[in-house]
Amino acid sequence: ADVAIIPNLALNKSITGTGTVDGTNVVTNLVDGLTTTRWSVSGYPQTAIVDLGDIYNLQRTELVAYSDRDYKYTISVASSESDWYTQIVDRSSNDSPATITNPNINLFDTIAGRFVKITVTGSESYTGTWVSLLEFRIFGTSISVDENDIDGDGVLNEFDKCSNSKAGASVDANGCELLDTTNFTISAVSETCSDKNNGQLVITANKSQNYTLTFNNETYSFTTEKTMNNITPGTYEFCIEVVGVTSPYCYSVVIAEGTKISGKSSLQNKQLYVNISEGTLPYKVYVNGDLQFETSEKDFNFEVNHGDSIAIKTNVDCEGVFTEKIELFDNITVYPNPSNGLFSIPIATNAKSVKINVLNSLSQLISSKTYNLINSRVLLDLTNENNGIYLVKVFLDKEYVFKVVKK
């Protein structure tokens, strides 16, 4: 028969197609209800989109091809021109001829849609390059519309902030479509170094849509990914939405300040004990300008000498330098003090001997000797002196003075 089966929702509806048509074989022939006319264009792939004029619950399509050809194709549906198409038919491996008496019939689960797209990608047995189709039929039922809920999403018009929700979509209390909870991946990147103000906010969307980002009172558009650069450290609130389709999805992120190396150190004899609390691993340790070693430990120790200049650097140059000037003799201690006259003085030096002067409380010199260092210690003997307070002067790189008490 020349007339398509009724009710064919595609009959005489608006249709557009790709490619350059062959004479009078225009794309509107595909929905004119006649199998004596055809749409013909050359080359693969070719696409035709039917606008049904309203949203319907779709359940079935039929395709009739010229000369009983077995074209390979897919069919997809969308509720609006800006929506993503959902594939409902996959005949990309089709080998069944689509004839007038036996068209390709495609049945599928009911889906709401207005725009129906067919994309022809090839043929199983036809070796030419022409896409020639006689009829594309679409079947379904109308969706009743409640005047108080025009988009049928269950939210009354007076409360609906998104009045064009596509049929069947899950919506929130505002009547706006819900996005998957994992739709957005948010990454906050701290500034690389202090005062660089080069933090980043990276947003990635699983579903490509026309998103609007509101950040720092400015709006930005993106579809799948957006990177905000040169952000000053701080806490930021921002929102993402598809205007008129979804509610705003709002987030809070912290852009951390760049790290500066910091830590503490302590001297025990000739060992410097270091704890680095902030700074990017690994650490390089320099003594008097020369690299001594590299470590990935935050706590470490090493031998030093009096007067050494210590510099510790991180893996990032702009994080600064932790420095220490070694003063082994600033904390010379005497044990015991007070004592009965024998005093042990630890002196962390590589020298084999050291000069020591002893003065009484009247600042009179009572002893001036050079002492041998045994195990980095000097034994000072004042057992033959009177009880009282004495000043001890140790001559190293400079003169160090401290008091001892004989009792």
Write a brief caption for the model.
This protein is an all-beta fold and 407 residues long. Helix content is 0%, strand content 50%.
Q: Could you characterize what this model shows?
A:
With 407 residues, the protein is an all-beta fold. Helices cover 0% and strands 50% of the residues. The strands form 7 sheets. Strands 1, 2, 3, 4, 5, 6 and 7 form a 7-stranded antiparallel sheet that branches. Strands 11-10-13-14 form a 4-stranded antiparallel sheet, with no helix packed on it. A 4-stranded antiparallel sheet has the order 18-17-20-21, with no helix packed on it. Strand 17 and strand 18 form a beta hairpin. The radius of gyration is 43 Å and the shape is rod-shaped.
Integer-rounded radius of gyration? 43 Å
Q: Percent helix among the residues?
A: under 10%
Strand content: over 45%
* Ends distance: 130 Å
Order of helices and strands: EEEEEEEEEEEEEEEEEEEEEEEEEEE
- SSE class: mainly beta
- Can you count the helices? 0
Number of strands: 27
